[in-house]
From TrEMBL:
<protein>
    <submittedName>
        <fullName>CBS domain-containing protein</fullName>
    </submittedName>
</protein>
<feature type="domain" description="CBS">
    <location>
        <begin position="1"/>
        <end position="64"/>
    </location>
</feature>
<keyword id="KW-0129">CBS domain</keyword>
<dbReference type="InterPro" id="IPR051257">
    <property type="entry name" value="Diverse_CBS-Domain"/>
</dbReference>
<dbReference type="InterPro" id="IPR046342">
    <property type="entry name" value="CBS_dom_sf"/>
</dbReference>
<dbReference type="InterPro" id="IPR000644">
    <property type="entry name" value="CBS_dom"/>
</dbReference>
<feature type="domain" description="CBS">
    <location>
        <begin position="73"/>
        <end position="132"/>
    </location>
</feature>
<dbReference type="Pfam" id="PF00571">
    <property type="entry name" value="CBS"/>
</dbReference>
Amino acid sequence: MTSQVETIGPKMQLADIITFLLEHKRSSAPVVDDQDVKRRLLGFVSEGDCLEYVGNELFYGNPSPPQTAETIMRKHPTCVGPETDLFTLTSIFTSHRFHHLPVVQDGNLIGIVSRRDVLKAIDVYYRDWNRTRDRERFPVDIHEIMNHRFIVGH
């Protein structure tokens, strides 16, 4: 999980959101209300959302009032908690094709977990699991080998 998350405010305009995503090399960003010290998650804006709204605006004309994060964000995004286990995260990422998930505690954004974060963690787990399984599958017990030699040899 990344706890240092670049966020946008609900009043940020569409052109500024696009600039933000491009400058920060992000495919999405959480929309938060930071009026308190806590960052209450309001929604999520993705490159796809921006493409949809800017495409519509260019085709149909400028909307009134201008589009903001608040008007284009996906409200109630799928979120996970800080205690969500690795296999649940893997299932969510593979089932829904998300790239990032907000990590929320008590309605406040505490971080973002990415597919890459999960892949790194599951790779470590998988390699350790394979090493353990190999040791369990091929334990060397010299007494058992010697006993089989005498039983099979006669």
